[in-house]
Amino acid sequence: MTSETHINPWPDSSQRRIPRVLSIAGSDPSGGAGIQADLKSIAANGGYGMAVITALTAQNTQGVRSVHVPPVAFLQEQLAAVAEDIVIDAVKIGMLGDAAVINTVARWVERTRPAVVVLDPVMVASSGDRLLAADAEQALQRLLRHADLVTPNLPELAVLLGQAPAESWEEALAQGKRLAIGSDIRVLVKGGHLHSPDCPDALVAPDGSVYEIIAARVQTRNTHGTGCSLSAGLATVQPQLGDWPAALRRVKSWLSGALEHADELQVGSGHGPVHHFHALFSTRAPEGNEFSSQLWLDSAAVRTAISGLEFIQRLRDGSLAKKDFAYYLAQDALYLNGYSRVLARASALAPTEAEQLFWATASRQCLEVEAQLHRNWLGAQASPAMPGPVTKAYVDHLLAAGSGGSYGEVVAAVLPCYWLYADIGAALHRQFLIDFPDDDGGKDGADGGAGSHPYSAWLLTYADEAFAAAAGEAIAITDAAARNASPADRERMRRAFGESAKYELAFFDAPRLYAQNTHPPRRLPER
Ligand SMILES: Nc1ncnc2c1ncn2[C@@H]1O[C@H](COP(=O)(O)OP(=O)(O)OP(=O)(O)O)[C@@H](O)[C@H]1O
Ligand SMILES: Cc1ncc(CO)c(N)n1
Question: Which residues form the Thiaminase-2/PQQC domain (predicted)?
């Protein structure tokens, strides 16, 4: 079996790995909102973006100067050109300008019936300028019926209901329920406009049930286009995951990162855009280290796929089945044993004593972590686990690099386990602290010694600073090895890294595929 057999985390044909997403929206020439934000958001969330333009605005980070709505006949031509050639997996609808545009888009949606339709009922820009003619609000109701999800901000929610804007989160939720039940649609109520220290969002289903997610409010004035980016991201992730709450968790976490890094962009003097590609631009590779920077960029798709895995999502929210977690830990222990041998091989090949010591220490620590896994988590297991197919294939790949490869190949092959693991660990840890601020893993006894999240003790130890520092050192060593390598060897290094990165993805997805339910669920030992 090849690694390819294991790494497809989208075996369900209704789920689409790279969804083709069409944004029907207005243009913002300053690049932060509208079509421009949508295309960036779609790409950042792993989709292929397309754009049909409903209106052109002359705007920047300070406000909207004017709006030009081209003839609807041309809008129709754009829609037809795209739909007659390309399968559209999802549509995001943003600024529509006036009633004629709304009716044209509504007719097109009624005819083509795209699988996923997210409607962001854009009415007023964050600067306060109107983006929808006042007499067109009624026409929006026609489109509402065709949306799988509608994402109004608080003033827009109020307009859709003909009420005054909600002033508290409770009021907002009540309005969201009224719209969802009254119009039989799924509504995303967004808390961006609240004056609260956090930024809650809630999915309200047509039956009125609520799925709420709370993120910290990022302190930045650069929030231009958050609504556009969120709705386009949801249209992109829903076809990948087929689950609205999971899609919201993933996109919110991404959007929080985009807001956290927004100030780095330095675009305009008003409300600037968010950093859609913060993960791709991640400067964790030390300055001047082109080789590892390239590896990081090359692994973007794998990293995006890892964060979207059901295993990771469920580990984060605590809904992961115990058998899956136990399978993961047992396979991790087996993996670490093999990994330790390959690290010892890196030590044997190292060109300097410092690097020899680094790998020897790492090899030894690996065995210690393996022992710790057995002591703290796997303890009373009846029989030692057998390596699963992914574990075996991954370790075989590493051992092959170790037995025949150059030093560069060995270090490139072992690097993803450091780097991707540290990256996902930090993200998991960060999100855990946001979602479960009071869960200390049961240490203070206030939660009955158990914590509200079953894996809190594990997640709290996940973002280990010493491990992140070791990852940084392994990256620097890889760069040094690349500088001393021939072009052909560098290519082999790149391939070894890429293979291991795919195995990291497959490893996180393996419990879903291979964890057996033959034993009663094991109780997790307390730490
Ligand atoms: N400062 C912030 N920190 C964290 N999340 C935020 C912040 N501001 C907005 N958000 C989030 O961004 C998303 C968009 O929310 P908001 O209610 O501002 O929509 P909007 O008004 O349609 O956006 P836009 O500014 O593009 O018009 C929501 O998920 C919201 O929680
Ligand atoms: C084109 C366009 N669409 C949407 C918004 C809302 O942010 C905006 N400012 N501009």
Answer: 310-510
User: What span, in angstroms and rounded, lies between the C-alpha atoms of 435 and 252?
Assistant: 12
Respond yes or no: is residue 225 known to be catalytic: yes
Which of 31, 34, 225, 425 is catalytic? The answer is 225
| Measured distance CA(143)–CA(99) in Å, rounded | 11
Cβ of 223 less than 6 Å from ligand 1: yes
Full-model pTM:
0.62
Q: Is 257 among the catalytic positions? A: no
Identity of residue 438: D
Quick check: is 47 catalytic? no
Active-site hit among 104, 226, 236, 478:
226
Pick the residue whose CA is nearest to atom 24 on ligand 1. Answer: 227
Structure-token match 């809008």, residue found: 75
201 lines ligand 1 (CB under 6 A): yes
pLDDT in tens, the chain (527 residues): 333 333 333 334 456 779 999 999 999 999 999 999 999 999 999 999 999 999 999 999 999 999 999 999 999 999 999 999 999 999 999 999 999 999 999 999 999 999 999 999 999 877 777 788 878 888 898 899 999 999 999 999 999 999 999 999 999 999 999 999 999 999 999 999 998 888 999 999 999 999 999 888 999 999 999 999 999 999 999 999 899 998 998 899 899 989 999 999 999 999 999 999 987 775 444 445 889 988 998 898 899 899 889 999 999 888 999 999 999 999 999 999 999 999 999 999 999 999 999 999 999 998 998 888 777 777 755 556 799 999 999 999 999 999 999 999 999 999 999 999 888 888 888 888 878 777 666 555 554 445 678 888 777 766 677 888 889 899 999 999 998 888 889 999 999 999 999 999 999 999 999 987 544 444 444 43
Q: Which residue has the tokens 């130890």?
A: 461
- ipTM for the whole predicted complex goes beyond 0.95: yes
Distance 227 CA to ligand 1 centre (A): 6
Q: Is residue 352 annotated as a catalytic residue, yes or no?
A: no
